[in-house]
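U., I forgot to send this yesterday:
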Amino acid sequence: KAWQADMVPLVPVAVNASPRQFEQGRLAQQLVKITDEYSVEPSLIQIEITETALMKHIEGHGNTLQALRDIGVRVSIDDFGTGYSSLSYLKHLPIDCLKIDRSFVHDMVSDTRDAAIVSAVVGIARSLGIRVVAEGVESTQQVEQLRALGCDAAQGYLFHRPMSGERVRALLEQLARQPAHSETLRLRVLRWVGA
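Result:
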């Protein structure tokens, strides 16, 4: 809210939600209250839940995911590929983004099996209209391969290490001053602490 008041160029902020928050069934109502109280656009919030946590209680979580989407919050499945990976839920659950686990991205340049898994996930997600983010990107070779596969975004130490809110604010302001700021912001998915 402070950044919004100071006209800082905003990007969606990803917030990890615990399985317990989903199980309580009040996450959407809590977010409505908070976004109303602070006059923050819900589309600037992306809730992340791990695939493993989602699959443990998929029936109840599906209702919570839909409630979040109904208020405009984006929904992301984190660490995709490390859980049960039942692809059937992708067509039924209201999901905006899949985040491919770093364990597949790490060796994708040298291991054709990891590259095949990443390629398959990107292909399936894109055909379903779901954005794909690769986690744990640490080399330009990984970026080149991910771009060639059509991956939407990447995050990892290649771009930035975790940083304070003050440093994120300065980075967003710096990127906004660059001529191609919208493309630069789109290609970077920033993770930080303290923002």
